[in-house]
């Protein structure tokens, strides 16, 4: 079963201790999922949906070495996931 970006980050947050970071990132996930559900195209509302996707991709990068991390989560930037 492949996870969505939001599902992946949410699952990793459940494994962390920092409640402030968890709460803030959960809000990002909720906003991203809402924006994706309402988006008519990727840059809906002047790029709001794309910006949220990018923020979650960056958050997910912390767990790039996790077995459930998907290549689809890699942000479109100069960032490269760590190699094992």
Task: Explain what this protein looks like in three dimensions.
By secondary structure, this protein is an all-alpha fold. It has one domain. The chain is built from three helices and no strands. It has helices at residues 5-13, 19-38, 44-60. Helix 1 packs antiparallel against helix 2 (19-38), helix 1 (5-13) crosses helix 3 and helix 2 packs antiparallel against helix 3 (44-60). The longest helix has 20 residues, at 19-38. The protein is globular and about 35 Å long. The two termini are 23 Å apart. The model has no long low-confidence stretch (mean pLDDT 82).
Explain the layout of strands and helices.
Elements: H1 5-13, H2 19-38, H3 44-60
Helix pairs in contact: 1-2, 1-3, 2-3
How big is the Rg?
13 Å
What is the strand content? Answer: under 5%
* Termini separation: 23 Å
- Give the structural class: mainly alpha
Summarize the structure.
The chain is mostly helical and 84 residues long. The chain contains 3 helices and no strands.
Highlighted features:
mainly alpha; 84 residues
């Amino acid at each position: 079963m492949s996870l969505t970006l939001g599902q992946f980050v949410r699952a990793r947050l459940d494994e962390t201790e920092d409640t402030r970071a968890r709460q803030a990132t959960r809000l990002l996930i909720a906003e991203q999922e809402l924006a994706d559900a309402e988006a008519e195209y990727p840059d809906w509302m002047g790029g709001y949906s794309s910006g949220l996707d990018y923020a979650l991709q960056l958050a997910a990068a912390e767990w790039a070495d996790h077995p459930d991390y998907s290549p689809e989560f890699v942000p479109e930037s100069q960032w490269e996931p760590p190699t094992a």
